[in-house]
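Please, structure for the following, as tokens.
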Amino acid sequence: TRLRLVSSCPSTYLIKAFLVVAVHLAMPRAGQNGDNTFVNSNSYSGNVFRFQSDLNKWLEANGHNTIAPDGKWGSNSSAATKIFQQAFSDLDADGKAGPKTKEKLFNLYG
């Protein structure tokens, strides 16, 4: 990102430089939410809906209660994901739908 400084006032330069650094530091990084891990959200996501639908196939096939596939990530999705993760030794049972969990589920039903 290129910053265009217009003012000749030194304090303006400092403020603008600070803002550029702050925006850069606020951007998601791999290993945070930038790896497409689903997080709590009240807004609809087609990707979350697909994950929930595929998760329901696994839950039903393995004798567990299903969840409402509403496309919103919340406590029910997290709890169901944790049940799925506990069935596989190579997944962390943290209830988060990170890259490894999504890959495992999508390889089964995607």
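Residues 22 and 63 are 48 Å apart (CA to CA). The chain has four helices and no strands.
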